[in-house]
């Protein structure tokens, strides 16, 4: 309560009422500095009065990322009592994130954004891992391991390309796969003169599924958990979003089940593509970084000339427009501003994820060897044809980056699994009840009813993968003040399993 009681006062410090009459008289080039200084001064004053705190790393990351990783590193398959401690862990995470949302910010806009994002996204991520799903029973990742040799000994390669020593750990009587712990396989690899490994050596490795290593050491389990938490779109996991290229995912997965990575398509039906070579991957990501760096530089300079991007839409008409926008009709001015806003978001996401892909491929795979597989680095966005063919559903369900897809869908999926939402299959006309509309043609509908909640306001959209890995189930759910749930279940081209 102490945290929430200070939210309103802190917000007033962070967002002061600017003297618009004096700002309107200022030249437009000086407006960004004036507004930025006003907000920075308000934050500094709040810190001095004890109403705010600066962003502190790594303290702000402990609850949203460290606590879930440590909790998942303790196996609860044979400890049912420990599984109930997830509520204590979740309470700690929520309390910490609410505290940071209420008190933590920065005079730097990017850091202030990161502070809010870490708290809000950390809560959604933790709810997905601790409440809505059971990763230790359901999640599995793809890892590469050396095929077992007849002599269970050394595998040597000529020309100094690869030297791998497989050591039996005494666990299950055989060699172990590379799973991030770094203590089962010791490998030393050098690249040949042509930059690729000998094709004959490709047959010495295989890819297998690795569920939660409950019998492994603590560091091995911690590596598995952190890999799950830090993996965008769960690429390389059986939880992978269905829009990106991925291997066939069986209904039941056991440790050591083989994965046919050679059968992964280069381009998914949603238009996401994967690189086929290291050169293609590096060139593509570096090209995007350079292009979108200049795009962001142009936008950061040009958008400052429009007070709309500085003061926001609440102050339209109170500040004079710059000369190059004064003759724009209202509809064109709106289109101009919306287009620049979208381009800024798109360029930032492409640039950030391109850098992230390179970091994961060259650095993170030292700790998570499975990250070295190129097929896990699909393009950030899908094909624009998804929008032309499917409209709004294609925009959000196909073309957009899908990073938060599973976390947003998790509550509705959880309710379906528990039977809180009852599905009664029947053919009905499309009434637009879902938050995501299905693609045109080939759908059937089913009513969602019978669930009642008290004093709850919620909106959720679930995208549940079906057998072909591309057809989706869209569920629109609305809960109002104890009223029954009403919605529609739309199946695109397949029957949900």
Brief digest:
With 497 residues, the protein is of the alpha+beta class. The protein has 16 helices and twelve strands.
Number of DSSP helical runs:
16
Shape: globular
Low-confidence stretches: 1-18, 150-200, 425-497
SSE topology string: HHHHEHHHEHHEEEEEHHHHHHHEEEEE
Beta-strand percentage range: 5-15%
- Taking strands numbered 1, 2, ... along the chain, how are they ordered across the largest sheet? 8-9-12-11-10
Number of strands: 12
* Helix-and-strand structural type: alpha+beta
How many domains is the backbone divided into?
4
| Estimated radius of gyration | 26 Å
Helix content: 40-55%
Largest sheet composition: 5 strands, antiparallel
Alpha-carbon distance between the termini?
44 Å
Mean pLDDT level:
73
Transmembrane segments: 55-74, 86-106, 112-131, 339-363
Keywords: Membrane, Transmembrane, Transmembrane helix
Region (Disordered): 163-182
């Amino acid at each position: 309560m102490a945290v929430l009681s200070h939210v309103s006062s802190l917000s007033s410090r962070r967002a002061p009422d600017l003297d618009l009459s004096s700002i309107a008289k200022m030249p437009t080039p000086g407006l960004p500095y004036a507004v930025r200084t006003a907000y920075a001064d308000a934050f500094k004053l709040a810190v001095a009065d004890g109403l705010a705190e600066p962003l502190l790393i790594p303290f702000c990351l402990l609850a949203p990322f460290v606590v879930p990783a440590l909790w998942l590193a303790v196996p609860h398959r044979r400890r049912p009592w420990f599984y109930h401690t997830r509520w204590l862990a979740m309470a700690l995470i929520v309390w910490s994130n609410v505290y940071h949302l209420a008190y933590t910010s920065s005079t730097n806009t990017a850091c202030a954004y990161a502070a809010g994002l870490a708290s809000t996204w950390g809560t959604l991520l933790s709810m997905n891992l601790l409440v809505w799903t059971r990763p230790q029973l359901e999640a599995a990742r793809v890892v590469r391991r050396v095929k077992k040799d007849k002599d269970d000994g050394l595998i040597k390669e000529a020309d100094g390309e690869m030297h791998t020593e497989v050591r039996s750990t005494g666990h299950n009587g055989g060699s172990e796969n590379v799973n991030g712990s770094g203590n089962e396989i010791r490998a030393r690899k050098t690249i040949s003169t042509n930059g690729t490994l000998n094709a004959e050596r490709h047959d010495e490795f295989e890819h297998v599924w690795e569920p939660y290593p409950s019998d492994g050491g603590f560091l091995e389990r911690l590596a598995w958990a952190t890999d799950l938490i830090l993996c965008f779109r769960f690429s390389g996991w059986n939880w992978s979003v269905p829009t990106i290229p991925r291997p066939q995912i069986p209904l039941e997965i056991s440790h050591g089940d083989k994965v046919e990575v050679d059968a992964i398509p280069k381009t998914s039906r949603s238009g996401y593509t994967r690189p086929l070579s290291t050169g293609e991957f590096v060139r593509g990501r570096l090209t995007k970084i350079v292009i979108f760096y200049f795009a962001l530089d142009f936008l950061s300079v040009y958008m400052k000339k429009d007070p709309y991007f500085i003061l926001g839409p609440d102050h339209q008409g109170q500040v004079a427009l710059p000369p190059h926008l004064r003759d724009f009709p209202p509809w064109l001015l709106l289109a101009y501003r919306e287009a620049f806003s979208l381009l800024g978001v798109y360029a930032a996401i492409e640039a950030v994820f391109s850098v992230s892909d390179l970091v994961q491929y060259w650095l993170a795979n030292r700790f998570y060897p499975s990250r070295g597989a190129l097929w896990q680095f699909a393009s950030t966005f899908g094909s624009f044809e998804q929008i032309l063919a499917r409209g709004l559903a294609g925009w959000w369900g196909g073309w957009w980056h899908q990073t938060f897809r599973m976390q947003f869908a998790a509550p509705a999926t959880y309710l379906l699994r528990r039977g809180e939402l009852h599905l009664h299959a029947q053919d009905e006309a499309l009434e637009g009840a879902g938050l995501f509309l299905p693609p045109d043609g080939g759908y059937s509908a089913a009513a969602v009813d019978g669930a009642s909640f008290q004093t709850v306001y919620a909106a959720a959209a679930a995208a549940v993968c079906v057998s072909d890995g591309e057809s989706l189930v869209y569920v629109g759910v609305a809960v109002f003040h104890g009223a029954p749930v009403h919605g529609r279940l739309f199946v695109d081209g397949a029957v949900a399993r």
